[in-house]
Structure formats: C-alpha cells, structure tokens
Write a structure and sequence with these properties.
405 residues; alpha+beta; Aminopeptidase; Alpha-Beta Plaits; five-stranded antiparallel sheet; 12 helices; elongated; binds zinc ion
Amino acid sequence: MDDPAKKITAYLEAHRSEMTDFLATLVSINSVTYHEERAVAWLQERLEAFGYDEAYIDAAGNCAGRIGRGPAVILADAHVDTVEPGSPADWGFDPLQPRITGNTIAGRGVVDDKGPLTALIFAGRAIKELGLGEGLTYWLSASISEEDVEGSCVRAMMELNPRIKPGGIIVAEASGMKIIRGHKGRALIRMEVAGKAAHASAAWRGENALIKAIPLIQAIDRRRCDREDPFLGRGSIEVTTVICDTPSLNTIPGRATVIADRRISCGESPEELLEELKPLLELSGARAFIDTEEVTTYRGYKIEQSDYFPSWIMPEDHPLIRAGAGAYREVLGKTPAIESWSFCTNAAYLCGITGIPAIGFGPGDPALCHSPEEILSLEDLVAAAAVYAKIALNFAAAPEAAHPA
Ligand SMILES: [Zn+2]
C-alpha cells in the first residue's frame, strides 16, 4: 500500500473508536470561553502521549504542538472553547456527557469545534506514526477564546512563539465537508447620540437622546451596502441594540448608544466603514467608533482586540486550495464543493490580517453550531482527519510551499 491517502485513511479507520473516545472525553471537559484551563492541560498531555515532537501551553493559555522540522510550515488551528453547554432539557441529555450511537456523537462542541480539533490532532498523529511528514512542519494550534474574540488568542500564540511562521494555514471549523476559501469579516460599530437628561415630568427641559437616535436607526435599517464581492456577496449592517444612559426610568436619557453589526465583504478598512456612515450619522447628530477592547484569558494574559475582523478570500487556483481539493479527491474519491463560510472565524486574523494563505475545512453541519442539537457523523470525523493530513502533505509537496512569496 504505497498510496499515502490510503495509508492515512486505513490508519485513521483503525483508530476510529479511539478518536471517538478522545472527542467524548474532550466534550466532557467543560471549556466555555475564558474557562479552558482543564481542557488545555488535558490536550497538552494527550499530544505528548501521541508522540508530538513538542507540546506546550503558552503564556496566553493556548495549547500548541509540533510535528517535524521541514521547510514547508503548516499551522492547523481549531479552537478549544465552546459556548455555554445549555440546558439538559433542551438537549434531552447532559450535553457534557456526549451521546454516542452507531455512527454519530452528540453533545456541546462536537461540531463547534471539538470534532474538527480532534480530527486535526489525529491527522498530526497519523503523519508522525506513518513517517509521512518529510519536508513538513505541522503546527497544531488548539486556541482559546475564539467564540468571543476570534483571531486574538491565535494571534497571541504566533506572537509568543516566533518559530510559528506558517506558509499555509488550515482553519478547522465545521463546513459540512466543503472546502472553504473565504468568509466575510465583521465590525462592531458604536454610535453615540448626545441629548440632555431631564425628569420625564419636565421633558421639555432636556432632549431625549433615544428619540433623537430614531432617524439614524431607521436609516441603518434601510441601508443597503452598495458594494458586492462576486464570491462573498454583499456586506450588511444591522442595529443589534440601543443602550440608554439614564439614571432612572422616569428620566429621559441624556445619551443613546446604538450598536450595529457590519458584515464586510469587500475588504473595507475601519476608516472606510466609518466614513460611509457619515450621512446617516448627521441625521441624529451622532458620532461613530470602532472600539478596541481588552480581553483577559484564563491565565490572566491581556490582549488588545479591535472590534474589527476583516474578510479574507483565496483564489480558487491557489496552491493551498488546490492542495485541499486534491486531498479531498484522494480521500473521498470525488470533487469537493468549494464555498465560503457565512460566519467569522480565526481566519479573520490568520489570513485577513497576516495575509498568509488559508484554507477552511471541517466535519459537521455549520447550522448546528451553538444549538442544542450538535451532532457529528463519526465517518465524517475520520474522513476529515484524513483530508487534513493530506492537505498538509500535498502542501509540503507543492514547490511553492517551502519558499512562500
Ligand atoms: Zn467555531
């Protein structure tokens, strides 16, 4: 059996029940965003047991592992954190005690993102144990806090370890087994409308900031982004909340803060996003900002994160996307669908900001993320691990990989 794709698939098929147990244990270790410490410690210990050449927890609290020292460097990232498990009543069982039936596993995180993470870890193990990683360095990133601040903790991982210098990145998130070559970005836009607080019984003494904000809110609701990307489609903007500064419920508010979610598809910069809002802001005399927040990981590590996450897009004929499509064909014997994600991931930083080529792929239906219905096919889990391993090997074999531009 000389065909590496067949070898990898056979290896992973033989480890299917071990992969299932691994995922079940990982799900049982609650790792809600900002509380990932137990899961990360367990992962580091597993990577060591699996023969990774290196496995460590960084100062931010991410777990990283490495296989090989070749010139073609791949960073394979999946996040450890999950949203809240949710109520057992909604699931019909305890979502931290996953349900395994014949060919599926259900529970919090099996789709987002512990299934894809399991597949990445076993992909590295298969490469190592089968001795296939010639010319390759495979960095495994089990990153934290993606659900709240996508991109910021994996950024910290790369900044904390300058040896992680990938020529290509695999972003492992549920994609329904489709190859992903881009997604929209997002920005959180804060708009402030100033008024003057006054007792509600004498409102004429003040200026009601909430009422003043209404023309702005309506204009945002009517707004249609005029630019459209042929692959990612049109951007959008939606008001998601209004916060009023008022000392009591019988005072008219002196300030209203309108928050909007802006989806970005044409690579607009933060400055451009604010500039295009100017005519709308004038309707209510408002000012707009894209804030920078400070997040603190479970290790107490502080990270500054702008509320701006750019879009990313890779050409279909890029060597990394070709490596991915080829890997899919070799493992699954058919041509993959190549699409975009509808949600934002760590790729906003990994590709959108660094400009390093990236590919997305993962088992599981993205529509199930964050729902009390997360369920994953074990067949897809094994196949995805084989595709990940083969993407890395195909990438290492591409002449461009070892000498990225
Ligand atoms: Zn995710």
